[in-house]
Inverse folding.
């Protein structure tokens, strides 16, 4: 069975959505959900749906939340053989959405991932380099991202996670085979405004000049932009009526990774990602 390593975050996601217009500085009636998340965890679980053996390299705590992560991974078939168990609490994310399902604010505490260091990863490097792909996310420290970009010979797939974390990869983004930022993260990484399609083209050109082979930029309700050194394009969103996009980006990422491993063209990978993201949205309806 083909193996993919995922080095990144696993967390407890706590999300809230009001019943009507969200009033700031007040307690709003609504719904609150608690589930296992984290970009690394989510992509890893999605990848098992494509019949890969997935190794998740992460750090979690030792309490009840850690057991939730372990149960989620066991159910999905994700291996935690090399995952670190630490004294700190498991990573936690709190997200508040508006009545339409768009994020108002999110707060992330992934400090436990400071234990995912080059020293921890070094003994695993031979196995990582034999894998079909290594997925890395922006929850990792700058030092760890730099180490992986310099040491891993398997194709690297990078998800920046957020604008606040995107810059952690610093000048090493060119070592990645493929990247999947959203338009805001792409703008932050490239220094190009991505408010317009023309700006997105400029950002993708910059990524390719740095050495990235395949660029996928999520445009939310507008679809996905794809580019490589031979072409580029925009695919309209496959789901137009989504009110909850939770998990769509990670589903898109996993499908793109599967396409890359199978040797599909960049456009074909984008099509697969777009369709997978739409299915995730439809499951939330």
């Amino acid at each position: 069975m083909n193996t993919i390593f995922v080095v990144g975050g696993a967390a407890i996601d706590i999300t809230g959505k009001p019943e009507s217009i969200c009033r700031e500085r007040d307690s709003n009636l609504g719904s609150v959900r608690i589930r296992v998340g984290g970009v690394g965890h989510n992509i890893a679980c999605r990848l098992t749906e494509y019949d890969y053996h997935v190794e998740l390299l992460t750090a979690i705590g030792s309490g009840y939340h850690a057991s939730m992560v372990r149960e989620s991974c066991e159910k999905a078939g994700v291996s935690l053989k090399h995952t670190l168990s630490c004294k700190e609490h498991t990573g936690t994310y709190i997200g508040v959405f508006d009545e339409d399902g768009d994020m108002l604010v999110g707060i992330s505490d992934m400090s436990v991932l400071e234990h995912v260091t080059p020293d921890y990863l070094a003994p695993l490097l031979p196995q990582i380099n034999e894998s079909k792909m290594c997925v890395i996310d922006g929850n990792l420290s700058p030092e760890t991202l730099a180490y992986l970009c310099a040491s891993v010979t398997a194709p690297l797939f990078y998800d920046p996670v957020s604008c606040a974390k995107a810059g952690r990869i610093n000048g090493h983004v060119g070592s990645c085979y493929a990247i999947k930022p959203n338009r805001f993260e792409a703008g932050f990484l490239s220094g190009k405004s991505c408010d317009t399609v023309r700006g997105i083209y400029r950002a993708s050109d910059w990524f390719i000049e740095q050495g990235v082979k395949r660029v996928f930029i999520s445009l939310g309700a507008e679809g996905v932009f794809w580019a490589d050194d031979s072409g580029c394009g925009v695919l309209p969103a496959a789901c137009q009526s989504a009110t909850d996009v939770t998990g769509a980006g990670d589903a898109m990422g996993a499908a793109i990774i599967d396409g890359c491993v199978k040797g599909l063209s960049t456009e074909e990978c984008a099509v697969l990602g777009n369709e997978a993201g739409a299915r995730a949205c439809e499951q939330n309806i």
About this structure: Residues 266-284 form the longest helix (19 residues).
